[in-house]
Design a protein that fits this description.
- The complex is a heterodimer.
- Chain A is α/β, with parallel strands linked by helices.
- Chain A contains three helices and six strands.
- Chain A is 25% helix and 21% strand.
- In chain A, strands 4-3-2-5-6 form a five-stranded mixed sheet.
- In chain A, β3 and β4 form a beta hairpin.
- Chain B has a five-stranded mixed sheet with strand order 4-3-2-5-6, covered by helices on one side.
- Classes of the chains: A alpha/beta, B alpha/beta.
- Chains A and B meet through β1 and α3 of A and β1, β5, α3 and β6 of B.
- β1 of chain A pairs antiparallel with β6 of chain B, so a sheet runs across the interface.
């Protein structure tokens, strides 16, 4: 007489499908996650790419001298004072401010100027070459 | 009287060929993918101190790299080849990663050349950590 072996009764659910699902979730979130994205500032506000509207009001010529010094219409001042000094010359914060660069000025000075004027709402800086 | 339904269970599929295929796919994508190329010169980003302003995040991983000497790198090419592929790809926005010591006059001339190509808007990668004197 042949005794057929009985199929063993499963008591616990299989672990493998759960691992499959966990790996699927892992891969999904690895693909969907965006980590380490860099912080950027807009240079479009520099007015180079978007032609500014007609210039309004008194002259506002800022010259970046480097080392945290700027000139406003030829008067030397610290970068920190530029926003207050520009105030009386602006009819509205969206007025264009012409920014030119001296030889000593670096990219860091350009970024400093943009961020120093942001709290005043001045975001229409027109960078011009020499 | 009892009848036992005796439907045989289907044989489990063999796992080894699937693993083979998965490894093949893994190796295929490892070989065909390229990491975003960076220039061989280091770039120190312009630093911005802590402010109340919120900043945007880069929406495009292919930066235009400009080390302190003013060379333009894009997609692993430099000089004229970089400008050619910039004009061909026309990414929008254009994200510049420039060295903080790059002369501002060079930055301005590069931005105006981008403008002449009709490219934009232009954004610049900054380092939002604390400024060195704060």
């Amino acid at each position: 007489m042949i005794i057929l072996p009985r199929t063993p009764i499963r008591k616990r659910p299989s672990l493998t499908p759960m691992i499959d699902v966990v790996f699927l979730l892992l891969v999904f979130f690895m693909l969907a996650a965006r980590f380490g994205t860099d912080v950027v500032i807009d240079l479009t506000a520099s007015g180079i790419t978007s032609p500014a509207t007609d210039y309004q009001g008194p002259p506002r010529l800022v010259t970046l001298m480097g080392q945290g010094r700027v000139q406003l219409n030829g008067f030397d001042m610290a970068l920190g004072d530029l926003g207050d000094a520009l105030g009386p010359l602006m009819t509205s914060p969206s007025d264009a401010v012409i920014v030119q660069t001296a030889n000593a000025a670096t990219t860091q000075d350009v970024v400093d100027t943009i961020t120093a004027l942001q709290p005043y709402g001045i975001d229409s800086l027109v960078l011009v070459g020499r | 009287m009892q009848f036992k339904s005796h439907t045989p269970r289907p044989a489990r599929e063999n796992i080894v060929p699937m693993i083979n295929v998965v490894f093949l796919l893994l190796i295929f994508f490892l070989i065909t993918s390229t990491l975003a190329p960076r220039p061989d010169r280091p770039i120190t980003r312009p630093i911005v101190g802590q402010t109340d302003q919120t900043h945007d995040r880069a929406s495009n991983p292919n930066y235009v790299f400009i080390p302190a000497d003013g060379t333009v790198f894009y997609l692993g090419r430099n000089h004229d080849a970089a400008w050619t592929s910039l004009a061909a790809n026309a990414p929008s926005p254009i994200i510049i990663e420039a060295d903080q010591a790059l002369p501002a006059a060079e930055l301005v001339s590069i931005i105006s050349r981008l403008e002449q190509l009709g490219l934009g808007p232009v954004q610049m990668v900054i380092d939002p950590t604390m400024a060195p004197d704060t």
